[in-house]
Design goal:
Radius of gyration: 16 Å
CATH class: Alpha Beta
Number of domains: 1
Structural class: alpha/beta
Distance between the termini: 18 Å
CATH superfamily: NAD(P)-binding Rossmann-like Domain
Strand content: 15-25%
Number of strands: 9
Strand order of the largest sheet: 3-2-1-4-5-6-9
CATH topology: Rossmann fold
Helix content: 25-40%
Order of helices and strands: EHEEEHEHEEHHEHEH
């Protein structure tokens, strides 16, 4: 399987990339990011794109892949809705046009727990993410998925980890025990993405417990 991963200099993107590099079923990975991941591996190629909105439609550099794991994203803190929508919704949909959606490709979009499918909720980021998910589901992919992750435990070798996780890392064992429905490991997230891309699923919106279930299937 040949895959594209975006956002490899962010916490989720880097974690998924590192996990996928160790999966033998994945033969080629194209990292599309605004800057280099500084990871060297025989099956990894990089495409540095400072602004995804500059990609042309049906970009030949993005053709021939079986799946795209869209992990690029940004916090909405301090942003107005118009700016956040442009960075989140507009950028994602423009990137999709560059991919040339088709029945041979699966698309995984990392949204987040709390995403609002109705697009009418009080939280601005949730409405924008919900709109993005809904429009992705309408495109002619093999199947598109909204990954509504909660807390994700970083892999041990990760370089890019959100500051919050550095402060609460010691709480992870307690959170796993007390709130198992809110936390995944990075390996679970990556393996769930892979199994979804290979075999599909009966629904498009993927929650924490779905990720746990799917990741177990991948290891069997």
């Amino acid at each position: 399987m040949k895959i594209i991963i975006t956002g490899s200099t962010g916490m989720i993107g880097e974690g998924v990339l590192r996990e996928c590099l160790n999966v033998s079923a994945i033969t080629e990975i194209l990292s599309v990011s605004r800057k280099s991941s500084h990871i060297s591996h025989p099956k990894l190629k990089e495409l540095i794109v400072p602004n995804f909105l500059t990609l042309k439609e049906n970009d030949e550099r993005l053709i021939g892949y079986d799946a795209c794991f869209f992990c690029a994203g940004i916090s909405s803190v301090g942003m107005d809705e118009e700016t956040y929508r442009r960075i989140t919704y507009d950028t994602t949909m423009h990137f999709v046009k560059a991919l040339s959606p088709n029945q041979n490709m699966s698309f995984v979009y990392v949204s987040g727990s709390g995403t609002d499918s109705t697009e009418k909720g009080k939280m601005m980021w949730a409405r924008v993410k919900g709109k993005t998910e809904n429009d992705l589901f309408q495109l002619p992919f093999k199947q598109a998925f909204g990954f509504r992750i909660g807390i994700v435990e970083p892999a041990a070798n990760q370089q890019h980890v959100l500051k919050l996780y550095k402060y609460i890392g010691w709480l992870t064992p307690i959170l796993k025990l007390c709130f198992p429905g809110f936390i995944n490991t990075m390996a679970e997230v990556a393996h769930a993405m892979i199994i979804l891309s290979e075999k599909g699923y009966h629904k498009n919106v993927i929650h924490v417990n779905d990720i746990k279930k799917l990741s177990k299937a991948h290891t069997m």
